[in-house]
From TrEMBL, chain A:
Zn(2+) binds at residues 7, 10, 45-46. Keywords: Cytoplasm, DNA-directed RNA polymerase, Metal-binding, Nucleotidyltransferase, Transcription, Transferase, Zinc. DNA-dependent RNA polymerase (RNAP) catalyzes the transcription of DNA into RNA using the four ribonucleoside triphosphates as substrates. Its EC number is 2.7.7.6. It is an enzyme of class 2 (transferase). NCBIfam families: PRK04016.1 (NF003089). One of its GO terms (biological process) is DNA-templated transcription. Binds 1 zinc ion. It comes from the Archaea. Its cofactor is Zn(2+). One of its GO terms (molecular function) is DNA-directed RNA polymerase activity. This is DNA-directed RNA polymerase subunit Rpo10.
Length: 64, 249
């Protein structure tokens, strides 16, 4: 649904980078690896939180 | 202990730092790491009263998200165990409710990150809630864990034994952490973690420096790294004093 606030593994706050990551790597055509490096999301545990996330609010909201 | 106690910074930042501690035992180094993870109290939202929630997520889910938002933690002694600080949030759709929309009743306790999306609100949806933040320890709940990815490695000493045999192929030698070369501290990232980049054509050997540990510490934003480490040391000291008093006749 919404992006997890923290990384499940290490507890780093990752949600604050989601909107920029989504805009640049998912909507835009930038390289996700480069975007994550630039955002300072270093460890692969935190990186997978953003890379594998899919926002579902728009999908479920019609059934509210 | 053989080496003299000493602290040296390799990398310094507000939320992330690396420093070398000499002259402590492995047990003490690990005690310090554990204190940083589990024993330094931080503020976090613990109870939420929903006045209106017409979003697509349940109250409980939103309460969890609010709890995980790091809050700035006031100086030691400002708050004791049962004190609470009330924060309120009132956002109407369409739009996103962010952690920055939390309004605190106490200037010392503010969201450390303002950009954390709490919930995406559509037309006519609204989130209005009141939350109580409490001060607690990481061992009770991960949301109170101020230190993130706290760890340490031995400091490694590199010594050059001589030249490689003339016709031998250069092989990469990966070392991570911080190395010591003639008393100089060099993070391995400076030579791409590969000793053959720094000592081409040389035969080297690597050994751990006894009782010297390089700590890597990050915080979730509740306080600075310096603050986290000093508070962790204080909790260790407090427990040692408590033990000393308890075993006195
Ligand atoms: Zn992580």
């Amino acid at each position: 649904m919404m992006v997890p606030v923290r990384c499940f593994t290490c507890g780093n706050v990752v949600a604050e980078h989601w909107e920029e990551f989504d805009e640049r790597a998912n909507e835009g055509d930038e390289d996700p690896e480069a975007v994550l490096d630039e955002l300072g999301v270093e460890r692969y545990c935190c990186r997978r939180m953003l890379v594998s996330h899919r926002d579902l609010v728009d999908v479920v909201s019609p059934y509210q | 202990m053989t080496a003299e106690y000493d602290v040296e910074f390799v990398e310094t930042g507000d939320r992330k730092a690396r420093f070398l501690v000499r002259g402590v035992t492995p047990a003490f180094a690990n005690g310090l790491r554990r204190a940083m993870v589990a024993d330094v109290p931080t503020m976090a939202i613990d109870e939420v009263r929903f006045i209106e929630n017409s979003s697509v997520m349940f109250d409980e889910q939103l309460a969890l998200r609010l709890g995980l938002v790091p809050l700035s933690t006031p100086p030691e002694g400002e708050f004791v165990d049962d004190d609470t600080v009330t924060l309120s949030i009132d956002v109407e759709g369409p739009g996103t409710a962010y952690s920055g929309d939390l309004v605190s009743s106490d200037g010392l306790v503010q969201p450390a990150d303002e950009n954390v999306p709490i919930i995406d609100l559509k037309d006519d949806q609204r989130l209005e809630a009141e939350a109580d933040a409490v001060i607690e320890r990481g061992k009770n709940h991960a949301k109170h864990q101020g230190g993130v990815a706290v760890g340490y490695r031995h400091l490694q000493r590199v010594t050059v034994d001589g030249d490689l045999p003339e016709f031998e192929d250069e092989q990469s030698r990966i070392v991570r952490g911080v190395i010591e070369d003639d008393g100089e501290l060099i993070p391995t990232s400076e030579f791409d973690d590969d000793l053959s980049n720094r000592y081409p054509g040389k035969e080297v050997h690597v050994e751990d420096v006894p009782n010297a540990f390089v700590f890597h510490v990050e915080t979730d934003g509740s306080f600075t790294v310096a603050e986290l480490v000093t508070r962790a040391v204080d909790t260790l000291e407090a427990r040692a004093t408590e033990l000393e008093e308890a075993v006195q006749l």
